[in-house]
Amino acid sequence: MIAIQNRPITANELKEFFSDAKDREIIDWMANSHKVYRYESLNELKFEILFRRKTIEASLDLLKSKAQFATFENSYCHDRFWQLSSKGAFLLKKDVTPAKGIEDIFINGNKYAFECATAIVIVFYKAALDSIGEKAFNYLFADLVLYDWHYDKDLGVRTTVMTDFVPGDCVYFNNPDFNPETPQWRGVNAIHLGNNLYYGHGIGIRDAKGVIETLNRYRKRQAVESAYLKDQVTRPNYKYLSTYQNYIRENKNKRISARIGQTFYTF
Q1: What is the CA radius of gyration of the chain?
Q2: What span, in angstroms and rounded, lies between the C-alpha atoms of 149 and 239?
Q3: Distance CA 110, CA 262 (A)
Q4: Could you tell me if 133 and 97 are in contact, meaning their C-beta atoms sit under 8 angstroms apart?
Q5: What's the number of CA atoms in the CB half-sphere (13 Å) around residue 259?
Q6: Closest Cα partner for 26 from 9, 45, 42, 7?
Q7: Which phi-psi region, left, alpha or beta, contains residue 40 (left: φ > 0; alpha: ψ -120 to 50)?
Q8: DSSP summary character for residue 167
């Protein structure tokens, strides 16, 4: 369910504010969820929908970039923009802005290889860049480091127990009987794209069954437990990041009036 200023709002009432088909799909998922998604303003909701759509787009763009899957010890990066640490972390060079560093991964993907947790953080950073703009992004993420689940506190990534997934969420497919010789396949972090499709770095786009079947090929001998989709979701702090969106920052003292259904609201 969606509530703005504690007022329940239906998907049909909101759709006039969202022209993009993917935005409307996300609204439907949220409206049909058992969880109550609460917002102080229509702009706050619109920002989260934008960020979720940009997360999905960044996932597809990362796949198209041809960036490779690699373990930490075999990771590599474009040395014009990043310095590679001995542990496989990417350290942004001093003469490169955070925005340009992230953008290069999507432009010159063939010069990069990393594992799936790093890929998800990269996707979230790209979605943030496309949602709040280059100036705010460079301000928030000045000391950018890409490595595993390490991320800037301003991205506000949190993992919670949940079974209602929304497109744009990061979910986790666990592989409890993974082969010790290939520990990189102990699980896959994946972006929920909608329509039961998921993007995971190293496996591409598959439905849930396809992700599980892929992981099951990397189990130890005489494995008894199948891989499965875990009841957890990982999301950035949309509410906090929305305060850095250009439109909201420039109009933070303005209030918006709109009719939703038969009721006239002021946000």
Answers
A1: 19
A2: 21
A3: 53
A4: no
A5: 2
A6: 45
A7: alpha
A8: T
- Neighbouring CB atoms inside 10 A of 231's CB total 14
Tokens linked to 147? 């490595």
What string of pLDDT tens digits covers the 267 residues of the chain? 999 998 999 988 898 888 889 999 999 999 998 899 999 999 999 999 999 999 999 999 999 999 999 999 999 999 999 999 999 999 999 999 999 999 999 999 999 999 999 999 999 999 999 999 999 999 999 989 999 988 889 999 999 999 989 999 999 999 999 999 999 999 999 999 998 999 999 999 999 999 999 999 999 999 999 999 999 999 999 999 999 986 444 444 433 333 444 443 333
Q: How many residues in total does the chain contain? A: 267
SS3 category, 265: strand
- Give yes or no for a contact between 236 and 128, defined as CB atoms under 8 angstroms apart: yes
DSSP of 1-54: -EEETTEEE-HHHHGGG--SHHHHHHHHHHHTSSS-EEESSHHHHHHHHHHHHH
- Cβ atoms of residues 188 and 217 within 8 Å: no
Residue whose entry in the numeric block shows the structure tokens 């595993």: 148
Cα distances (Å, whole numbers) of residue 265 to 40, 89, 100 = 12, 48, 40
User: Nearest 5°: phi and psi at 107?
Assistant: -85, -45
